[in-house]
Amino acid sequence: MNLWFATNNKRKKDELEAIINKKLKIPAEEGFYFNPEETGSTFFENSLIKAKALKEALGNKDYVISDDSGLCVDALNGRPGVLSARYGMENKTGHVLTSAEQNLLLLDELGDNPLRTARFVCSMILLFDNDRFIAVQQTIEGEIVGKSGAKGDGGFGYDPIFFVKEFGRTLAEISSDEKNKISHRAKAGKIIANYI
User: Residue 88's CB: how many other CB atoms inside 10 A?
Assistant: First the structure.
């Protein structure tokens, strides 16, 4: 049986493969279009939407893993939250922001606010069929760096501005092996792996 991951993000796929120690298939590498509309108001709802959409698209008995993840910043009332991947897109300029531009936008919005606490959230689902699934939600706590504090070339997304006290570095500065032990996705993935 094949194990599918409901994403087109190869970096996410590689990260989850290392965490669960299983080979995953993703739609983009298998030659078909997959881009469900994420209309949920929670990470769980969006994760379930993606899992069910891929299961339906596959039309087979393969299991599907999905996740919806994002950054929740306390001083921004939990934003960008479920809109993390689309943060800043509401500018209606037609320009799709890069990760670096999203990071700068978030740092500008946060400004000099002394409240820097934040967490990454990952809601992960292992879908057997539409009415039978395992759902896990995990977090990693950290702080948002100051405007000049973005560091590191590893990871992706908001990793360069997310400081982890335990390591004294941003998520983008720690190794993949280290990240795959402590991240929100790692914690959720390890639990899901026990059910596979």
Answer: 19
Give the count of domains, the chain: 1
Domain that holds residue 53: 3-193
User: Model pTM?
Assistant: 0.91
Three state DSSP letters for 73-121: EHHHCCCEHHHHHHCCHHHCCCCCCCHHHHHHHHHHHHCCCCCCEEEEE
CA distance 8 to 142: 27
Is 159 an annotated catalytic residue?
no
Sort strands 117-129 and 132-144 into parallel, antiparallel or unpaired: antiparallel
Contacting residues for 25 by C-beta, under 8 A, at least 6 apart: 2, 3, 4, 5
Q: What is the CATH number of the domain that holds 142?
A: 3.90.950.10
Catalytic residue among 14, 62, 67, 68: 68
Tens digits of per-residue pLDDT, 27-51? Answer: 999 988 899 999 999 999 999 999 9
Average pLDDT, the chain: 92
Q: Give tens-digit pLDDT for 78-130.
A: 999 999 988 888 655 667 788 999 999 999 999 999 999 999 999 999 999 98
